[in-house]
# Entry
Amino acid sequence: MGIYLVSVSAGDWFGTAETDVEDDGEGGQGPLAAALDAELARRGLAPYTSVPERTALVRGSGQSFEEKLAAPMDGFGGLCREHLSEHESGLLLTWSVLVPLSLDESLRLPVRSPYADETTVAGAPQVLALAERMAEAIRLPLDVIPEACDNLDLTMWFLEGEAEEAATTRPGPWAEDLDAAFYVALYLRAAQHSLRRGCPMTYS
# Structure
């Protein structure tokens, strides 16, 4: 059990079934997809229709995304307050769905999410820019942190000792709070995945 951050395939995004946690956290997001397209149309923007289909899970392929929010977030919240404005921190911390669209501001849609009465949608380019700033501020060693996150690779890297080993050879501010570093890496990799695959990301 716990909260996971996962990618969403076309069949689930455009479907109408309720969320099924046993199905990789993905469920029918049809009402949300419709509400998002309606809001985009209201703003004079094109609908979001190019969602990729589900692919078979191949560990390390980077075709899907699944990571568990296992670490405490207090340190990450502190990093956000230190390095970002209040508005930027809100953008990074409060979204419930991430889409590969450039959005000047988060969109609040009247569709219930698993953890709130509405859904807050953020643009992956904006989230990526903030996560990159955070990663640079703490000197996160991105060359040794997993890029493919399709089978809890990032979660396990931080939980099973590899992060601690890397901290001894690649010291820096990131190594002072590995829980906070995990969330910087998580949001960075999630935004990168959303843009690379053109898919939504959500919590389950």
